[in-house]
Amino acid sequence: MLVVPSKLKKKAFIIPTVVVTKNNEARLDGAAVFDYKNQLAGFLNSDETSGLNYITGKAKGGYISASIDHDQFAFDLQRAKSSIKADVTDKNHIHFTVSIDASGIVAESLQTIDFTDPAQMAKVEKAVGKQIKRLTGEAIKKLQDDLNTDALGLGDYLQRNHYDLWQSIKSNWDRGENYFAKSTITVKTHVNVKSSGTVIESKFK
């Protein structure tokens, strides 16, 4: 089920999609993507939507499933923020770098994690960062390759920070020449495990 806002924007945007379970309970599951014409371009699944939210700085917590040496654990995300920089030397190959800082606790693990061991903690942080990169990568691929629609807000970034360039390409950003699809988007992550939380026996199979 889609709930389309009454006042449409003149640029790409997303709205959450709602599904009804067998128990007649409504829950959010993925998102619908609308292009600059306010026409439905397609849908993002739940993982792709999570990836988009990390890039846009709208991630509001939740659990990330990751693994160390094939042992799974659940990371309880408590804070995430993102920042964007761009190399606009060549408008045909704009290079965006998205930096994502995330912090949280390990909520559930197959084995007790030694939070006093820097090497083990580095593995936890690397594993979580890898998962965030996977999620963001799926969102980027879907939007650039399949939907050709900038729901990431990168055009807004260019308008704020590279105004003259934006004026020259805005009519061909995610349409026409589609400089958005031609852009390279690199995601860098920094994960901080704040504390151990309550690590219990995992339910993962």
TrEMBL record:
Pfam families: Spore_GerAC
InterPro entries (alphabetical): Spore_GerAC-like, Spore_GerAC-like_C, Spore_GerAC_C_sf
Gene Ontology cellular component list: membrane
Record-annotated Spore germination GerAC-like C-terminal domain positions: 29-197
GO process terms (BP): spore germination
PANTHER family given in the database record: SPORE GERMINATION PROTEIN B3 (PTHR35789)
Protein name per its UniProtKB record: Ger(X)C family germination protein
